[in-house]
Structure to design on (505 residues):
């Protein structure tokens, strides 16, 4: 990446929204501006897990200010992500549609494991190179991420639904600090984090690092009180809890280094952090300077493998985990992308995959859907497309945003069966093209061998919303089962705003 290139990362956290801006100089990122606003969306979820109008407005107001600062940036220079609160919010689309416009850039709602991956990348790039085995902990507003890794490579990642805002709302709702409240909060946090014991054992890591949020808040207070700077210890956590109990309430806290925006959520954050220390047998944790934003910037700089490579590996892992027939998935993907190339009349081909970046992305995602189209068979052969869609809608796949996974799930759900019951936007022509090509590819590959595509041509018909699949003379007689299934497919598309016709060319 050229020197002088501007980059910006936006982190829509459960407690605060953050914007970091900088420039590339001699291959390194140097911050030029950092904005943070306490938005508290994490405590703006109602009992039905909907963001309240007030919480949405606070977010929109902040993003409008960020958007003004980002005016003039290009799409390749900015990455914005949202985490646990918007993962949970049932009405997140209602918030995101205006939010994208106000910010001026798309906001990706990322999965917990993708958040963990980015956190680790951000932490690792700020640490010296070495072979130490690292445990990285990030206690956020509504989730806590735990990551094991060496160098720049994370090996284990998980996100748990426990955090400073959520636990403060639940166990310190009146902002009162008592020993009983801390005990209950810590017990509850351990109940959520208990499954981490088998993966993040003390013998699996050498050094523990704490990133962002709660860890920074605690470390700052401890350092101001004379504890070793840059570290959090068990003894320090005990000391801080005693100080909070002595203060009795958030508004009576008198601790140097305690920021005003942390007073009402420090109880929940401290409880979760104490639970992590106890469960994972941590005696001392180093304060890390990197975090989620820096992981985003690291990705933007292209200092790691291309994002598509990460997603391709995620697809491979999902296919292997659910016993998908890899060879058949690749076969279906090859046929589907062949048909899509014909349909779009593109120069894009396996020999020229980068002819058009937009089409290349469509082809790549179509291939992924093909590779995953039968993962539901691991659960049940009956309605396996429905099981496969459910898996994708609930999977934590590195590199993917939640909307991307949902798009894949819709392709998997729609690759067979009735189209009229498919809850998709049939006005999205590119998605319709992907869906049609996937369905046709599954039909043509029904015998689980490479189909004869010679003389088979898929085109857009002359009139609107219509496709035509033509075959050479004698093809239907040579492959009667395929021809029968294709005629059934014509009937399926009649129940949609689109139509498919067949004929000999």
């Amino acid at each position: 990446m050229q020197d002088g290139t501007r980059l910006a990362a936006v982190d829509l956290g459960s407690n605060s929204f953050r914007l970091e801006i900088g420039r590339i100089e001699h291959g390194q990122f140097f911050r030029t501006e950092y904005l943070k606003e306490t938005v508290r969306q994490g405590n703006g979820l109602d009992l039905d897990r909907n963001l309240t109008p007030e919480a949405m407005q606070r977010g929109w107001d902040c993003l409008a200010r960020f958007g003004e600062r980002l005016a003039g940036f290009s799409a390749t220079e900015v990455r914005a992500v949202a985490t646990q609160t918007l993962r949970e919010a049932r009405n997140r689309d209602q918030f995101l549609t205006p939010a994208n416009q106000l910010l001026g850039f798309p906001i990706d709602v990322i999965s917990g494991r993708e958040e963990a991956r980015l956190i680790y990348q951000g932490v690792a790039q700020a640490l010296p190179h070495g072979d130490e085995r690292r445990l990285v902990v990030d206690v956020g507003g509504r989730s806590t991420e735990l990551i094991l890794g060496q160098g720049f490579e994370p090996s284990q990642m998980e996100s748990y639904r426990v955090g400073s805002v959520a636990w403060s709302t639940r166990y310190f709702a009146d902002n009162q600090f008592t020993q009983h409240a801390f005990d209950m909060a810590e017990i509850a946090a351990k109940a959520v984090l208990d499954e981490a014991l088998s993966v993040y054992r003390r013998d699996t890591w050498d050094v523990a690092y704490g990133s962002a949020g709660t860890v920074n808040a605690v470390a700052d207070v401890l350092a101001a009180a004379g504890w070793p700077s840059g570290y959090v210890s068990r003894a320090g956590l005990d000391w801080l809890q005693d100080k909070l109990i002595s203060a009795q309430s958030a508004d009576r806290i008198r601790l140097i280094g305690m920021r005003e925006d942390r007073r009402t959520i420090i109880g929940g954050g401290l409880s979760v952090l104490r639970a992590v220390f106890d469960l994972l047998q941590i005696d001392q944790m180093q304060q890390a300077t990197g975090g989620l934003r820096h992981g985003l910037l690291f990705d933007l700089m292209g200092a790691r493998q291309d994002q598509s490579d990460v997603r391709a590996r995620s697809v491979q892992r999902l296919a292997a985990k659910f016993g998908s027939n890899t060879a058949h998935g690749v076969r279906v993907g090859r046929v589907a992308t062949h048909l899509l190339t014909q349909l779009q009349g593109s120069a894009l081909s396996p020999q020229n995959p980068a002819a058009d970046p937009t089409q290349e992305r469509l082809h790549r995602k179509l291939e992924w859907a093909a590779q995953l189209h039968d993962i539901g068979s691991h659960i049940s052969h009956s309605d396996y497309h429905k099981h496969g869609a459910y898996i994708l809608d609930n999977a934590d796949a590195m590199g993917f945003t939640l909307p991307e996974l949902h798009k894949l799930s819709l392709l998997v759900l729609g690759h067979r069966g009735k189209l009229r019951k498919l809850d998709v936007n049939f006005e999205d022509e590119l998605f319709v093209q992907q869906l049609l090509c996937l369905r046709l590819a599954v039909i043509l590959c029904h015998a689980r061998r490479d189909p004869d595509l010679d003389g088979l041509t898929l085109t857009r018909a002359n009139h609107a919303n219509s496709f035509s699949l033509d075959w050479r003379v004698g093809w239907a007689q040579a492959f009667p089962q395929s021809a029968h299934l294709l005629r059934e497919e014509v009937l399926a598309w009649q129940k949609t705003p689109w139509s498919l016709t067949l004929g000999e060319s």
Observations:
- The domain at 307-504 is CATH 1.10.3210.10 (Hypothetical protein af1432).
- The first helix runs from residue 53 to 69.
- The chain has 18 helices and 14 strands.
- Residues 251 and 260 are 9 Å apart (CA to CA).
